[in-house]
Design goal:
Elements (H helix, E strand, L loop, with lengths): L1 E3 L11 H10 L5 E5 L7 H7 L3 E4 L7 H10 L3 E6 L17 E5 L14 H14 L5 E5 L7 H6 L4 E3 L2 H4 L5 H11 L2
Parallel strand pairs: 1-2, 2-3, 3-4, 4-5, 5-6, 6-7
Length: 186
């Protein structure tokens, strides 16, 4: 679930009320991507609403380590989001606190953008960093994920893929688009 505040990214989307409404109708895990300034101010509200995982941007908080501790202390998974121009080295001192890393392969805030090829090396670097730390953290990739780009990111170590426009905007329909995406990485 993408949460945008109109400040960190130009769009505005849902808040804890929508997360709470979704939680009431599904037992599926709710992975909430906070594209908001000062995420630590809202972490508790999203956890109370039913989030299972919260991912935050290092640029959005002055105290990344503290914010990740806060998320974990509330009993949900904690992750860091890396924008295309954010170096993976920002993870170095928070590795023990990570349940996952979300690599943005587009600039956050808008759907339908083209995959940024330069992020492929970042995916590999993140996977290597996590493996060297003996971390079980997942690596997720969001942006421009299609049946053509999915095999590339999985080959570099991604374990989760986020696809929006390729699924919901697919002319063949949602079910067929999901099947095609899954088949591309099988």
């Amino acid at each position: 679930m993408d949460v945008m505040d109109g400040r960190f990214v130009p769009n505005i989307t849902m808040g804890p009320i929508i997360v709470r409404a979704v939680r009431r109708v599904t037992r599926l895990p709710l992975d909430v991507h906070l594209m908001i300034v000062d995420p630590e101010r809202y972490v508790a509200a999203f956890v109370e609403a039913g989030a299972d995982a919260l991912t935050i941007h290092p640029e959005a908080t002055p105290h990344l380590h503290r914010a990740l501790q806060q998320i974990r202390n509330l009993g949900v998974q904690a992750g860091v989001v890396l924008n295309p121009a954010t170096p993976e080295t920002v993870l170095r001192y928070v590795l023990p606190l990570l349940d996952g890393v979300l690599v943005m392969s587009v600039n956050p805030g808008f759907g339908g953008q083209a995959f940024i090829e330069e992020t492929l090396s970042k995916i590999s670097a993140v996977r290597q960093m996590l493996d060297a730390a003996d971390s079980g953290a997942w690596v997720s990739v969001d942006g421009g994920i299609t049946a053509a780009t999915a095999p590339q990111v999985v080959a570099r170590g991604a374990t989760r893929l986020v696809a929006g426009s390729a699924i919901f905007g697919a002319p063949e329909g949602i079910a067929q688009a999901i099947a095609s995406l899954r088949q591309s990485v099988a």
